Amino acid sequence: MLYLVTNRLLVQNRNFLDCILDAAAGGVDAVILREKDLPDAELLALAKILQYRLGKLNIPLIVNGNLLVAKQTGAAGYHDGFHHFAQFTQECRNFSEKLGVSVHSASEAEFAAANGADYLLAGHIYHTASKPGLSPKGLQLIKEIKARVDIPVVAIGGIMPDNVEELLEAGADGIAAMSYILTAPNPGQAAGALKQRLKPLSERNDLLDNNSTMER
Fold first, then answer.
1. Using an 8 Å Cβ cutoff, are 160 and 191 in contact?
2. Which residue ranges run through the membrane (predicted)?
3. Which residues pair with 146 in a beta bridge?
């Protein structure tokens, strides 16, 4: 699974909505709408537009950090930070659709999994400009979490095509990207490059063989 986590402040000289939809068409499997500074009314309006447009592509919308907007939109999922989730666990568990939680340690992952999370975003794994001054957790975080939970674990933080394979080898069930896609000249191509790396090696080799045959 390839998740796109939004951040409109990263989008330069492009329409934010178009950027998301280009990425969706390029291979994104789900979009996490993470615009924490938007007022509720503006977030709700944006979420409704995305819910409609992504629905035409059969791509689920997940709303981050605003449970009311997630419910009002009829979103396919709600995503929360660990500390808020730990404080309002029961309220979050009452959400009827998919529930995701961001975690930064194996103990946080274990708590979230035991209290209703359907999937986890684990990170940040690599250096990323969105977390200045904070050391990355590295692949060991994925390995430790996978040893203690049995729900999907999605790696986030500094994700690029060149490091996807080692994330999968460490046990990640999927990846989530923000900067790599949203700052790319072509978000659709960037999403496609990541999605290609998520395919089993045998599938990638088959595709390369087929392309070589077509070229000849």
1. no
2. none
3. none
